[in-house]
Specification:
By secondary structure, this protein is mostly beta strands. It contains three helices and 17 strands. It is globular.
Length: about 350
């Protein structure tokens, strides 16, 4: 397992080292060149994300060419060209005023109060199959979507894991788990925010029929800029768990952290850890961690590898305390690419 993880980590960094070759190259009229990723483009300015200076703005009139040339409307290109304006024969064209881009409200007009529009995020799938003396198959899927309004944000997430092995004609499913949830954040100011959350979990091989967790608390935007976002969370939760022959209700304290890091326009890291402490029994606790490194090959498609861990120091029915997950596969980005 250690060798496998090391191989994938090495693969990711080798692939990341090739990213500059896939980046855009902006050639200026004075002969200078800027290498990076074009993140936005207008008639006046071009914003380029570079590895050495972050996001920089370039006057469009100073740009000779962009390689590869981004797709754009031909008429808009002709209007934006500084040389086209100097042609005496060229007919005058009316320049349309720029449209003001407004954030999609979290709760607003449209279908289902606007909740069906304005989402960004990604979906992943990973599959592994081996055959020989025994046959094994592993399937993992995940989904993460975010919708932001003026002062609020809604995040939904889900992940599944299925593992089956067959030996001597007998098939055994050792993992058939599904977990996920949602969190609503409301900013109090530029640093402090309140949140409510809902998480669920099911794990049939562990005889966990269903676990439902409702939580609420406060959070802090400790770091928030174009490259790094770090949020710290604390609050309380109510854990209702259905097992094969019993149901329990447990008040819990929760603490957590989420981190998003953009190394450049294509290489990204995202991680989260949440700790739950049983209030009525200090000897009982559990935590969940997830860390994902992804490399976008295009704006929509990329590759990823994820390390996840679910730990419960008092698991039901003498099952293992720790569930470790390492997976890799393809990622699809939807919504506005960032």
């Amino acid at each position: 397992m250690t060798k496998t993880i090391s191989a994938f980590v090495l693969f990711c960094f080798v692939l990341a080292s090739a990213i500059p070759a896939l980046a855009d190259q902006i050639t200026l009229k004075n002969g200078d060149r800027v290498t990076g990723t074009v993140v936005s483009r207008s008639e006046d300015k071009i914003e380029v994300e570079t590895e050495y200076a972050g996001v920089i703005k370039i006057d469009a009139a100073m740009v000779e060419k962009i390689t590869p040339e981004p797709a754009k409307d031909a008429n808009a290109a002709a209007d934006a060209s500084p040389t086209a304006a100097k042609q005496p024969d060229a007919p005058a064209k009316a320049v349309e005023p720029k449209k003001e881009v407004k954030a999609v409200p979290l709760f607003g007009e449209g279908r289902a109060f606007g909740l069906l529009e304005g989402w960004t995020g990604n979906a992943t799938i990973g599959y592994n199959y081996a055959s020989g003396n025994s046959k094994t198959a592993t399937l993992t899927t995940s989904l993460r979507a975010v919708k932001e309004g003026g002062k609020d944000k809604l995040t939904v997430y889900a992940r599944s894991l299925w593992f089956s092995s067959r030996k001597s004609g007998t098939a055994i499913t050792t993992s058939n788990a599904f977990w996920g949830g949602a969190r609503y954040d409301r900013n109090v100011d530029h640093k402090l925010f309140g949140f409510v959350s809902y998480d669920f979990e099911r794990d049939r091989p562990k005889k966990l029929i269903f676990r439902s967790i409702v939580g609420a608390g406060v959070g802090h935007h400790t770091i928030k800029n174009d490259r790094t976002e770090l949020d710290l969370l604390s609050g309380i939760a109510w854990n209702r768990t259905w097992q094969a022959d019993e149901k329990t209700d447990t008040p819990e304290g929760l603490a957590g952290a989420t981190l998003k890091q953009r190394f450049n326009g294509r290489l990204k890291f995202q991680g989260a850890v949440t700790f739950f402490q049983n209030i009525t029994d200090v000897q009982e606790y559990r935590f969940i961690t997830d860390s994902t490194v992804s490399v976008d090959v295009t704006k929509r498609v990329g590759v990823f590898f994820t390390v996840g861990n679910r730990f419960n120091n008092d698991p039901p029915r003498n099952t293992e305390k720790n569930d470790f997950l390492f997976t890799t596969g393809l990622k699809w980005n939807f919504g506005k690419a960032k």
